[in-house]
């Protein structure tokens, strides 16, 4: 679980960087709370790094091959593709009037009308009958004074 969390944040950080800068990348990881330890060779070239949090320490290659120092810049480039340039060639042919008849096009009513949302019917509310327990027997029906009147 820890490796996936680190890998997700590493990729998120590379994605948010406007330009590739390994020092800024390390700074962002440190701001998140990770301990970043870069490894240099004798010529002061960056050859690797480890990321640690609490008792977990991982080399960049253990998190993901794309986060190794040799692959880090290419991973950033993959996350920031340059927009493709469209090259248009001037057309040598000129438009000539066609001898074919032109069909008229029409727009369907369905595309111009607003879609009607179905109305949701409200749920029926339960009806309750109120009984008065204190009513004396014989006074239930106000018309005939019967205790159970089925006519009124």
Would you kindly provide a brief summary of this structure?
This protein is α+β, with helices and mostly antiparallel strands. It is 30% helix and 12% strand.
- Residue ranges: pLDDT <50 for 5 or more in a row? none
Q: Which sheet architecture does the biggest sheet show?
A: 3 strands, antiparallel
Q: What structural category do the secondary elements indicate? A: alpha+beta
The proportion of residues in beta strands is 5-15%
Radius of gyration: 39 Å
Strand order, sheet with most strands: 1-2-3
Shape: flat
Number of alpha- plus pi-helical segments:
5
Helix content: 25-40%
What is the first-to-last residue Cα distance?
74 Å
Assembly classification: single chain
Count of beta strands: 3
H/E topology pattern: HHEEEHHH
- Give the rounded overall mean pLDDT: 76
Notable traits:
152 residues; alpha+beta; three-stranded antiparallel sheet; 5 helices; 30% helix; 12% strand; flat
Describe this structure in words.
With 152 residues, the protein is α+β, with helices and mostly antiparallel strands. The chain contains 5 helices and 3 strands, in the order H-H-E-E-E-H-H-H. The protein has a 3-stranded antiparallel beta sheet with strand order 1-2-3. The longest helix is centred in the N-terminal third of the chain and has 15 residues. The protein is flat. It starts with a helix and ends in a 40-residue tail after the last helix.
